[in-house]
Amino acid sequence: MALQPGKSFQDLILTLHNYWSDKGCVILQPYDMEVGAGTFHPATTLRSVGPRPWRAAYVQPSRRPKDGRYGENPNRLQHYYQYQVIMKPSPPDLQEMYLGSLKAIGLDPMLHDIRFAEDDWESPTLGAAGLGWEVWCDGMEVSQFTYFQQMGGMECNPVSGELSYGLERLAMYVQDVDNVYDLNFNGRDGLDKISYGDVFLQAEQEYSRYNFEEADTAALFSRFAECEKECQALLAKNLDGNKPTLALPAYDQCIKASHTFNLLDARGVISVTERQAYIARVRELAKACCVAWSNTAGGRA
Amino acid sequence: MSELLIELFSEEIPARMQGKAAEDLRSLITNGLVAAGLTYEGARQHATPRRLVLSVEGLGEKAKDTVEERKGPRVDAPQAAIDGFLKSTGLALEQLNTQDDKKGQFYTATIKRAGRTTTDVVAELLPKVIREFPWPKSMRWGSGSLRWVRPLHSIICTFDGAVVPLEVDGIKSSNVTRGHRFLSVGEISVKRFEDYDAALHKRHVMVDEQARLQAIRHDAKNLAMAQGLELIEDEALLKEVSGLVEWPVVLMGEFDERYLSVPPEVIITTIKNNQKCFNLRGPGGKLANKYILVSNQIAVDGGKEIIRGNNKVIAARLSDAKFFWDQDRKVKLEDLLPKLDAITFHAKLGSQGERVKRIEALAGEIAKTIGADVAKAQLAAKLCKADLVSGMVGEFPELQGLMGRYIALEQGVDAEVADAIRDHYKPQGPSDTIPVSKVGQAVALADKLDTLVGFWAIGETPTGSKDPYALRRAALGVIRMIIENKTKLGLMSTVSSADSKLTFELSRITGMVDWHGKQVNQQHVDLLAFFADRLKVYLKDQGARHDLIDAVFALGGQDDLLMVTRRVAALSNFLATDDGKNLLAGVKRASNILKIEEKKDNKVYRGDVNPGQLIKGEEKSLHSAISQASALARKAVEAEDFEGAMKAIAKLRVPVDEFFEGVTVNDKDATFRENRLRLLNRIREAVAEVADFSKIEG
Asked: Under 8 Å CB-to-CB from B210, ≥6 apart: which residues?
């Protein structure tokens, strides 16, 4: 059966998978940890460091505890899907490829107004920065398009091109629905139809309560400290004689620390001044992990 | 005479950078051409989202031949020096000439250079310009090392219709480009600007940004008029939008009328800032529920989908805004105040809540001084920051103040108080107005003075170009409110009062000092000097002489900025008269004599003149004139009648002139001499009632 990206959320994902697979990307599955954005996946963060060519595409469930609205806002979610493409070195026709992907999911550039509007990207937690655009389709931001210049504090050479699609928003546009929970998830009709709300509404309600009210802050504070400590300890042992390196397990701890911080932030227990200090602590971990990765057999030339 | 055409074709250039980049391209290339000895008649530059374009017309084909005479080492100089000279000139020894001067014989070289061809010059110049281009922000891409604002794809460089061969980071110049991203297929070859411009126009690219801008303006107005509406013009937006499209297609969208219940500024902000669309007014000037959007696409369905999409985005945003507006109205501004305690204003300066309490108290005091309604000023100050925790300002921070006013009006707060809530951020820059009402001024003054005093207390004052808290703007705001409104406000006492409200622990960097008989904090003296500096900048912009401002400030104890400006004005008028000019000369003469004699004798001639020792008529009449003039001037100054004070001082002109004519100061008799020197000092003292004349130039 032909895919119907304009009718089904999962077909939208499958269409993008097919499209980017055809462009030579490794189609990965989501990273099995809680992250705030697709960029945190080691397939982007770590693979954008160092000289080796790399192409990958994947869906990454992203958690933004502060964005939860108890399932009551038609646009905001504390858990949503990002579709992430990374190409290193960035190919000269990346813009054309990207436009091709929009066409594949039913956004014909001859019918829509597609624009590249200046938007430079920066992630203080990852020590990362890049130049690029937010891509507008008829006045709506549908993707982020970035040429990485820096990751983990290190200059990117070669430069990776990163595309990041907000899948729910894109689906709402192509399915023409105004409420994310009304999205058709499986593309069936009548009783067979399963909506986005059927899949995620309960979770949005529960996690909003957890994120804002119930997450154990004392435990979170100590978890943050533990993750930081373990990350540093692993990095200290990273290049230990002939044993395998430990850059990836260390980076896992960095990811955990970052998500723990996001939860604490949502609980409102981190003051404005402390906030910067926590972000800086995560950044130091990310930087050290990127440096460690660049010295591993997988990361170096 | 021929034409040079350059096109640098890249991925989308940020709109805000296009104009400057095109100008930089023109000046860097034309300067480089001129430096290479070429002449040209004219140059035009253009920018679109994807290209920088330059055409240089009437450009010569070859630079002029040049001859340079260069002096070399002496003929008996060490061989190394002679070899070095030969190397630098590229000549052989027998090609050198010799010349004699006083010290002996030396070599000279005549270096003839054939002018380079324009093609050679450009082939070297353009790659250098590209590599060193002054983008405010640039990037690398792929595996290359070239930096450009976004990936650079192709370079057109033709001279007299032929390609100038050059290469930058693997990009070879050509005469080929592409048209509109979606509305054109394939490549086109060009020769000169004329056919380039025409070929691109055919392929839906308007190269000239002015043409795009005019097209948008024209079509937008027409579309609006056809619906009986009026375009709300916005030059900055127009410029930005014409930098976002290569082929503008103007369309009209609309939103549900029910959103018009939201304050119009919110709708305007959403549509303009977030969506880069133009707002429309209906008959009677009311905001319409339609708007103008500018797309970059001639869509196959006539733009229906594009309009539908834009409407959807705007509806979602307005629906959020309406939700916030409906929620925000329900909560009394006063009930939001406790939330301000949770917002840190600055780590060392406490919370917004604490700040509001300080501003409230200070606004009350200032209101009393400047004759504003004290209760209203206090209420406005109390509520002025409440909207910071409203949903709307959380979403649209640029609406701070304005939302406070709307919410206040909804909740039946007095209109003057509501206006003051909106206006207390004013003036936000040199082109912004000051608050209209005295109540608004009181709160605005209190807000700014609290900020200034706070940052001075923690030592975070502006240095050089760094002014992260916009303290210069705050000080200028205070100055403008005082002067434009002719407000009398003793700054030192107001600053002290503001400081006394800082309740938190401060590690004071400085101690107390004597300031014209008062004990004040050194920081406040510094802050006052900062105001004096800002006032100087302000008055200079208004055309006042900086030396006159110095002459008034040098009097010391000047903390009433209105009085300072009045003194400066009176002094300026006085010095424009004959009396003023002559008196200034007389005073300068007296000061100079004193300076010389005081230095010679190593003592200062102060103190009273002994009238019994005045023997000459001229010195007697000067003495009595000084006594009268000083007394009159002082009285006038006390009454703040500076013109009157100048008039009183002006009476000294004749006696001073006559004194210098008829009396020898340095008399042989030491007693007479000292007495006369004291009389000269009295002149200096008398005019010091109005200004320190030693600071006045000329």
From this structure: none
Tell me the nearest-neighbour CA distance from B324 into chain A, angstroms.
Answer: 13
Surface of B (343-382) touching A: CB under 8 A: 343-344, 347
Mean predicted confidence (pLDDT) in B618-639: 89
Give the span between the Cα atoms of B360 and B381, in whole angstroms. Answer: 5
What ipTM score was computed for the predicted complex, to two decimals?
Answer: 0.94
CB < 8 Å to A89, chain B: 141-143
Residues of B in contact with A149 (CB under 8 A): 139-140
A237 Cα to chain B: minimum distance (Å)? 33
Pick from B111, B172, B129: nearest CA to B35: B129
Residues contacting residue B502 through CB under 8 Å, at least 6 positions apart: B349, B358, B453, B454, B457
Residue B247's closest chain A neighbor by CA? A113
Its pTM stands at 0.79
> Which two tokens mark B228?
């009986």
Mutate to test the interface with B, among A73, A90, A94, A113 (most CBs of B within 10 A): A113
- B20-29, B130-139, B686-695: the lowest-pLDDT one: B686-695
Given a contact cutoff of 8 angstroms between Cβ atoms, the answer to whether A112 and B299 are in contact is yes
Question: For the segment B498-538, what is each residue's pLDDT rounded down to a tens digit?
Answer: 888 887 666 565 678 888 888 888 888 889 989 988 998 89
Q: pLDDT for B222-276, tens place per residue?
A: 999 999 999 999 999 999 999 999 999 999 999 999 999 999 999 998 899 889 9
Q: Would you state the pLDDT for residue B310?
A: 95
pLDDT, greater one: B686 or B165: B165
Mean pLDDT estimate for chain B:
91
Say if the Cβ atoms of B244 and A115 lie within 8 Å: yes
Chain B hits for A93, CB-CB cut-off 8 Å, are none
Say whether B16 and A139 touch across the interface (CB within 8 A): no
**Banded model confidence at residue B21, pLDDT cuts 50, 70, 90:** very high
The least confident of A78-92, A198-212, A269-283, B220-234 is A269-283
Alpha helices in B518-577 (DSSP H): 522-541, 546-553, 561-575
Who among A90, A120, A138 is closest to B141 (CB)? Answer: A90
Is B675 in CB contact (< 8 Å) with chain A? no
Task: Please report residues of B whose CB lies closer than 8 A to that of A113.
Answer: 295-297, 299, 306, 309
Candidate ranges B172-176, B328-332, B607-611; pick with highest mean pLDDT: B172-176
| Distances, alpha carbon B466 to alpha carbons B260, B460, B509, B562, B697, in Å | 42, 10, 20, 28, 32
CA distance B32 to B244: 30
Inform me whether the pLDDT recorded for A301 exceeds 80.
Answer: no
B-chain CB neighbours of A120 within 8 Å are: 137
